[in-house]
Amino acid sequence: MDNIEPPLIKEEFGSLHPINQVKDHLLGMLADLGFQEVDGPEIESEEFNFDMLNIKKSHPARQMHDTFYVENKSHVLRTHTSPVQIRSMLKSNPPLAFTSAGKVYRKDDDATHLPMFHQVEGIYVDTDVTFANLKDLIHQILHNLFGKDVKIRFRPSYFPFTEPSAEVDILSDNGKWLEILGCGIVNPIVLNNCNIDTEKYSGLAFGLGIERIAMLKYGVNDIRDFYKSNLDFLSQFK
Amino acid sequence: MKVLYKDLIKFISETPSKEILSEKLFQLGHEHEVHGEIFDMELTPNRGDCLSLIGIARDLNVFFGKSNHLEIFEDDIKSLDLDFKNLSQDACPKISFLEVEIDGKISEYKPYLKNYFSVLANNKVNFFTDISNYLSYELGQPTHCFDKDSINNQLVFENKTCNQELETLLGSKINIKDQNCVFSINNKIISLAGVVGGMSTACSSKTTKVLVECAYFNPELIIGKSIKYNLISDAAHKFERGVDISSQEMVLRRFIRIVQDHANIKSIKIKTFTNSVSRKNSIPINVDKINKILGTTLNDDNYSEYLQKLGFSVTNAIEAPSYRHDIETQNDLAEEIARVIGYNNIPSQPIKFDNINKKNQDILTSLGIFMTQMGFTEVINYPFSSQKEKNCIVIDNPLDSNRQNFRTSLKESLIENLLYNERRQKDSIKLFEVSDIYSVENSSIRQVKKIGLIISGRLGNNYAEFSKKLDSKYLKNLLNEFNKNFNIEEISRDNLSTKKSDPIFYAEACVDDINSEFLKGEEINKPDINFIKYNPVSQYPSSTRDFSFAITNLSKVSEIINYFEQLSDETIKDTFIFDFYKNIKTNSIKIGYRLVFQSTTKTLSEKDIQKKVTEVLDPVLKMDGVSIPGM
């Protein structure tokens, strides 16, 4: 009888939220490249969320049906993490490389869109930053996430804060192109707004939707699953 | 916007396959899906000039050349004597009117017009309106057709403050309020300019004399109007993005040509009211700048060739075509050239990050990892709350009016999470959330990063902790390690929608108050991410069954433990030992196992479970000296 040991009790670990795991992974990867993480408020002024980013007053994104306004329209719930970069650029001089990550809000709620989701964005400003540099950086990010053999497609797009702008797709196993991120050369108007000499400096910027990456990497089909707080779901991501 | 492949290739000089056309459209930045013969285009908001067949073709001409397909009425046209007054010339710097009278029968629509309605599933309205709608598809310029006989007095255009009802030609009634661009007769609004016309002046199948209005409206004044009045308007979509101010006569001549294709024209008259010369934006030629933006090695010839292919004038400076409202800077030109080269054809060039300072990982990551080591699971919640706390931030335009407030604590969310999991048969719950919390203080917005923890149920799913409950002492011992300021609170279940009785304990603190030295001292290593393939969560309830094995043949103990550890079955979700007891007197061991059953495809019946129980227990009960008392 004395030889019989009680069964080992396995430690029951919890888990970090999968969205934060992916966020930390991306930030870690970008930190290794030389990007510094910066933080900022989720409740922003229209000036930092829109004006400084060359999003004009008439832009549809600024309307009440797309953006959450708070406190009698004195502020907005940030619609992207770009204003964090604006705040950081105003406090720094180039060369600079920042990442900002966190919750953003848009007035959507359906099977593929949520009113709150997460972004990781990056900006790099230095002398002679080119679209060719942007391509190399995006390749590095996507190779890290999806492997060296992943097929990548750049195509022109439109964002008020970058020019030229691009959206980047990867080729999925079923032969369809999947949109992964948006990026571009920082519009000189934005750099000027941040008191950066555009004769001397140029920049590149990119942004990824974390839920999108998490869904692809983990095979989650319904974006809403991330926010049900279901332990059967969350405990799988240990 | 849906376009027919056959219609599109009429405007280019070659006949590329759908696959090649699709590839080139993507290269140019025109995202789309191909469904049979239809290209379903999703155009970026800066390319209003591409919201038509001719617009998309203009871009494709870079690769395939231009065809001279478009037939227009080329004869002289008499001047129209129209009593029209433009009181807001800034809002509408150029407007043209065409009067067409027909007689006799209207013939069957020619294939190009017929396909627009049949293949693209557009609704026919009446002859003139049908041509107007087709023209918008073909040329991108919206036109509006008034029944000329209903324009019985001076027609006035004005951007003015309104408060009047308009019955639209769609049959709905809208209250036009505040500042709007409108057409009026005798101060009665007959059309919401650039958005929708009114019923009183609309064409019908009986109309033989039409007044076609073809205008350029300032996009800023049209933006938001269709949403404001809850209208779906293709015209507004185009005017909001800017139409080609110099194309009005060509558009109206094309209108006449289409009428000619189907009816006998009795008379035509035209009049243009122009109040300003179209703005032309010149950009200096600077090939070096383009190469610096793109990282390319273009020469002067490449530069000129690419821009000219896109319709730009290259002389002493670069001038964009009149339909391109999005070209103002060298960066805009760089994008144009990059589109022609193809983004994928621009070589990559590594960045040298030598000048950049690296920074270390922050305390939040360590805190999260420590919590998971303590068995807590992290949740993320929406910040929208039903509770209106003092100093909370109020959302002006919430999605759900019952959740109009920004939360000032993580408590409400975590209680909801706990109850949600209890309803899913979870009986040992430890959750945490880290989030910024906002409030209004002295008219400014205050931001604090907080951590909230909630616990309830069993201490753990193992024989040492199964009969113990998570309590305030557990939480206090845990939290004292890194912050003595946590306020631990027992949450009453009295007002909660729950039948459970286990006590709930909650604690919240500011992350800034956490002893970061403690976290640095711990063995808290960030694990590499493991991208597991997630298994969809079952929507069906789980069932538990407990079994107590009496073991007199002690050599079988490890065999039983190994058996259950290796047990793998798609309907057995979990197994664990909830009891382990050595009976010295009887020289036997008692092991209690809990089995949790759940199917991903159905609710398991008692019969299903019993069958599975027999299957699982049979090999164990066949062991010598192993029994389940009473079974």
Distance between the termini of chain B: 70 Å
Number of helix segments of chain A? 7
Radius of gyration of chain A (CA) equals 20 Å
- Largest interface, and how many residues on either side? A-B, 96 and 107 residues
Order of helices and strands of chain A: HEEHEEHEEHEEEHEHH
Could you characterize what this model shows?
The complex is a heterodimer of chains A (238) and B (631). Chain A has 238 residues and is α+β, with helices and mostly antiparallel strands. Helices cover 27% and strands 29% of the residues of chain A. Chain B has 631 residues and is an alpha+beta fold. Chain B has 18 helices and 27 strands. A 5-stranded mixed β-sheet of chain B has the order 4-13-6-12-7, covered by helices on one side. A 5-stranded mixed β-sheet of chain B has the order 5-8-9-10-11, with no helix packed on it. In chain B, a hairpin with a 2-residue loop joins strand 9 (173-185) and strand 10. In chain B, helix 10 crosses helix 12. Chain B is elongated and about 120 Å long. Classes of the chains: A alpha+beta (238), B alpha+beta (631). Chains A and B meet through helix 1, strand 3, strand 6, helix 4 and strand 7 of A and helix 2, helix 10, helix 12, helix 13 and strand 17 of B.
